[in-house]
From TrEMBL:
Originating species: Williamsia herbipolensis
PANTHER family: PEROXIDE STRESS RESISTANCE PROTEIN YAAA (PTHR30283:SF4), PEROXIDE STRESS RESPONSE PROTEIN YAAA (PTHR30283)
GO cellular component terms, semicolon-separated: cytosol
Gene Ontology terms describing biological process: response to hydroperoxide
Protein name: Peroxide stress protein YaaA
One matching Pfam family: H2O2_YaaD
Length: 247
């Protein structure tokens, strides 16, 4: 089982790891693309105004440009500790047992506009780049990642891929046969609506359940059962879509 988490725009500072070594990251077939994007991002950081435009930053966010400027020299930390925010608060890797933290490193990956996808333990620096960004001279990020990212993910030796990425990040590298998750609110009258902000929380809770369980997940039925045992209400929409229902 592999669970692909969405990244977050917010990231923790610092770290104790050595500076970024792209060749040491998981999915080494993606190294040439990572090198191209990283070089473009560092070059762009030399012009703060151009960076702000390309990355969609406001005047109060120019410190993000400084992060990109030091991409190759700043310290790293495991990806699962680098990303922050609602989903990662709910996952709470630091609060897991030692056994579950080991499972988290084995079972979790994170989608990334800059790195394509990284394993939970891959050491990465803080940076700013989103799926919708356009780096000068390179066009859309989807045009850079296709078809290599999908090929790398399709080549995984795992029974089930659970793709929790948002649509923009899935578009960078769709995974054939993966299971996607939709979070819906069920209202008192029986109507349903898509959960926006808090869908990240519910996906984080789901990911925590999946790295804590001793049960095997082989298909969507066993996935629904494990997630339900974790306290979430589930519904199988199709053989490739699991719905989490909230009140």
């Amino acid at each position: 089982m592999l669970i692909i988490l969405p990244p977050s725009e917010t990231k923790s500072d610092g770290g104790r790891g050595a500076p970024l070594d792209l060749a040491a990251l998981s999915f080494p077939t993606l190294t040439p693309i990572r090198q191209r994007l990283a070089a473009a991002l560092v070059d762009l950081a030399a012009d703060p105004e151009a960076s702000a435009t390309a990355l969609g930053l406001g005047r109060t966010q120019l410190d993000e440009v400084a992060r990109n400027a030091t991409l190759y020299t700043s310290p790293t930390r495991p990806a699962i500790e680098r990303y922050t925010g609602v989903l990662y608060d709910a996952l709470d890797v630091g609060g897991l047992t030692r056994a579950s933290r080991t499972k988290a490193r084995d079972r979790l990956a994170v989608g990334s506009a800059l790195f394509g996808v990284v394993r939970a333990g891959d050491p990465i620096p803080a940076y700013r780049l989103s799926a919708a960004s356009r780096l000068p001279g390179l066009g859309t990020l989807a045009s850079q990642w296709k078809p290599d990212l999908s090929a790398a993910l399709d080549d995984l030796d795992t029974d089930v891929v659970i793709d929790l990425r948002s649509g923009g990040y899935r578009a960078l590298g769709p995974v054939a046969g993966s299971i996607e998750v939709t979070v819906l609110t069920e209202n008192a009258d029986g109507s349903r609506s898509v959960v926006s902000h808090f869908n990240k929380h519910h996906k984080g809770v789901m990911a925590r359940t999946l790295v804590s369980t001793r049960r095997s997940v082989r298909d969507i039925s066993s996935l629904a059962s494990v997630v339900a045992d974790g306290g979430q209400r589930t519904e199988i929409a199709s053989d490739r879509e699991l719905v989490i229902l909230t009140d």
